[in-house]
Amino acid sequence: xxxxxxxxxxxxxxxxxxxxxxxxxxxxxxxxxxxxxxxxxxxxxxxxxxxxxxxxxxxxxxxxxxxxxxxxxxxxxxxxxxxxxxxxxxxxxxxxxxxxxxxxxxxxxxxxxxxxxxxxxxxxxxxxxxxxxxxxxxxxxxxxxxxxxxxxxxxxxxxxxxxxxxxxxxxxxxxxxxxxxxxxxxxxxxxxxxxxxxxxxxxxxxxxxxxxxxxxxxxxxxxxxxxxxxxxxxxxxxxxxxxxxxxxxxxxxxxxxxxxxxxxxxxxxxxxxxxxxxxxxxxxxxxxxxxxxxxxxxxxxxxxxxxxxxxxxxxxxxxxxxxxxxxxxxxxxxxxxxxxxxxxxxxxxxxxxxxxxxxxxxxxxxxxxxxxxxxxxxxxxxxxxxxxxxxxxxxxxxxxxxxxxxxxxxxxxxxxxxxxxxxxxxxxxxxxxxxxxxxxxxxxxxxxxxxxxxxxxxxxxxxxxxxxxxxxxxxxxxxxxxxxxxxxxxxxxxxxxxxxxxxxxxxxxxxxxxxxxxxxxxxxxxxxxxxxxxxxxxxxxxxxxxxxxxxxxxxxxxxxx
Length: 561
Prior knowledge:
Helix content: 40-55%
Strand content: 5-15%
CATH architecture of the largest domain: Alpha-Beta Barrel
Radius of gyration: 24 Å
């Protein structure tokens, strides 16, 4: 028996035989075409179009975040610049296979050099190229295997197109050797409720047919387990299934301390699933869905319709709407599409809205009108707030439009360090841990080469969260967390210990977080926060907190009995 360690996604546990992902197709040799330039061009274009159509179809079937990811992949596949590179290689006498392979490799290197959002998209090119090559060769792309029985899938990483459509009746769990807690694989696994451990480097050593236990809560993969270990895992899985299937209740700690559990939503159509899973409201509604597919800003009436649909789904409940967060990875032609050397540090969030204040004012108008027509408790917040002056500006402007509850997102260390002064001038703060981690660690969250630094467990990030929590307690203002960190059940307890009064996450994560919180008191949460803060790095903080929870578990069970 051996134990492999990685980053667990959720609280699930599963067991079964290993099935490894097939290796990628071999790279084609550089040979001259015998079919002619026109024929090779036609073959390449047809293959790319077929793959793009397949990705779009998979996205339609999967829905949610997967749809957005796969639509982006389809757009990359048909990028005109990439097509020109393929044509150029064919014009030099190459085959369609060689031209596609070499062009994609070159394009990948270019995107990696650019970094940021485009750098992250470079990793998607491998999957797209493999699919195009498979189409050209008339063979199946190396995808999720189908052994005819339930299995634990082992892969270096999983393409979004495969993760989105995993057959959960067959795939018992997913283990990858690459990736981290904010990778596409992790995000989609969390959204689909897949038992997963990512970044388990030694997973490549596992063999087909080998029995393993995948424990997402502990972030471990146990190989060749004993009968007793298998029985314990089976019992835990049954307990968790019962807890997840139980009627949802409001979020609370074991001592009765209320912690509102809210949903992160990207469009009004997602509301029904959140309500069904017991969301107590919305902690982050991303308004970009109205803007990103438009060549010009949507009208007030168009926006009002979308916001009204959302608010009507949560009568009497809190709904936190984030103002348009454009820039960086979401440039808009009508707002901020000017080239910037480092867009993550440029004109984005509230900065870009102030530069085009008419769009900001129209959005506030539409929100105020939707609020007046519904019974939800509307809260509105500005993204990427860095200063006290920006806080005063947005809160004052929101008041001008009749918004009763206005707040700011804390995503920049500056606003976290001055949280007491920021909260003195606004109604609430919501911590976006994805960007806060990025700016604290000086590591672009869209760049795979620094993914190891993209971990909200880092004590530097947790210390900043604690600064906001303390400021919230002193000023009597709510402090929420709406980044991916809130969906990690163990980290959720630590965040509460640092002062978070509400947590917002993908709806699929609500049950696990609700269960984790219900087993800990506020005193225990604060103790776990101190333990994590005392660590030197993210991995040590996570391990120390997990070990502390394991030590607490017997005591907790005795208390409940």
